Amino acid sequence: MKQDDLFGSGPNAPGSGWHGTGGGTVAFSLLEKIRGETAADRAMAFLELLHIPEGKKAGTPLRLAEFQRKFVRGALADGVMVACLSIGRGNAKTALSAGLALGALVGVWDDQPKREILFAARNRDQAKTAFGFLVGFIEGLPEEDRAQFTIRRGSKLEVEFEGNGGGLARVIAADGKSVLGGAPTLALMDERAAWERDKGDNLENAILSGLGKRDGRALIISTSAPDDANTFSRWLDEPPPGTYVQEHRPAFGLPADDLASLLEANPGATEGIGATSDWLVAQARRAIARGGSALSSFRNLNRNERISSEDRSVLVTVDEWLSAEVSPDQLPERAGPCVLGVDLGGSRSMSAAAFYWPDTGRLEALGTFPAIPSLADRGAADGVSDRYVQMNDRGELSVMGEATVPPGPWLAEIVRHLDGAEVACIVGDRFRHAEFSEAMQAAGLARVPFVWRGFGWKDGSEDIERFRRALFDGEIVVAPSMLLRSAFSDAITLVDPAGNHKLAKARSLGRIDAAAATVLAVAQGARMKAAPARKVRMAWL
């Protein structure tokens, strides 16, 4: 094996390692040991001839776990151009992909000449991880096979193979222009969820367009993205024809230390790959104890959940919100006055209402979209797949009007949801004063007190603080609601130099209307509970 570096190449290069004789006429011995009719069978047979390059089992033969075999079969099946693998951190997804890259480089299942393999990542340093596994696998090969590789670790990270028609594996940065004109036979996109949106999409598009020239394949691997709008999430949720998807993601809302769901996200734990079950449970409990970003990061990276690990400006974290959820049969009754928080949507946007009973802490929420476009089309445009359709099926999201939601009829329908419960007041945005007045008049609610609140720094900061305090003190009780979970996952706060907060969207296509209505309702309920009871000293008869 030859190594090139920054100072030159060949046998006299400083720091060079093994040196071969070129190897162009030397047969690659491992190919003679591989049996199998399909590409997947040959790939799996080749992988199990390799040796683990690093870790506690370094030097031992590689043995594929069942979830890895499943991915290889799916990725190399006929008609598949793109294979996506989403799994918890530490389950050897990068090592598996690097092993497949080596198989593609030496022509295990594709012997077309001058094969080209790309290692793509957000930046060069990240791509070096997969490249390092490739080099590690090569270093574990028999000496006569090693001699056919030339490794370059200078300004370019490349591995050139001189046998069986030849091939080149190289690392590229997240710049689509760097691969224009290329014709890769295999592309490995590592940690796709972490790529910058614009540069990452440009790189991905350039790679995919090049793959078509030689019937190439792409392996897109990553832990879960923080949200549904991420391009990697779109690959998983809306796979185009010719795409194989394998996602190890547990159901949302489970405790972080739930063992069954931890193993669902980390199938390697039961097969000796990565962390053990005991370690995962222990780390989950440490994350729970620390809370905040530690818990969010654990859920995203180790439980493979779609949760942002950035919590410096979130309204509330997912675990803080989940602490308020109970099963429907455990909800307190609708007792006492109800505060109705309303976020009146504009043209083509969602209108949302939150119902809060301060005496019992019960919270309910409803949202409404106009009929055009359909919920399915709107979900696709907002990057949330079929989430709106699911909300509609659960009775949390309705449709009213055509291009806009009519304020008057909608508000009347919202009040009918209360089924006769007493409305203490309605809380809404003061900048929509005229629309609210007309809507309340049309809904027959002109005599109901209306509390005007702003969404700026002054009113917004107070309302957010009261809402958070009520949530942390256990004064909010709500049934599991996809509408509210979705809204709070997109809700962040902007902070001014004085430390005041106001509500904002985490992404431009996010829908936080239900979260805004909830903050208004709960904050007003907290003010009502804190107000001293007035004693009537005199009454007119």
From TrEMBL:
It comes from the Bacteria. Signal peptide: none annotated. Coiled coil: none annotated. Residues 1-20 are annotated as: Disordered. InterPro entries: P-loop_NTPase, TerL_ATPase, TerL_nuclease, Terminase_largesu-like. Residues 301-524 form the Terminase large subunit-like endonuclease domain. Residues 83-225 form the Terminase large subunit-like ATPase domain. This is Terminase large subunit. It comes from Ruixingdingia sedimenti. The lineage of its organism: Bacteria, Pseudomonadati, Pseudomonadota, Alphaproteobacteria, Rhodobacterales.
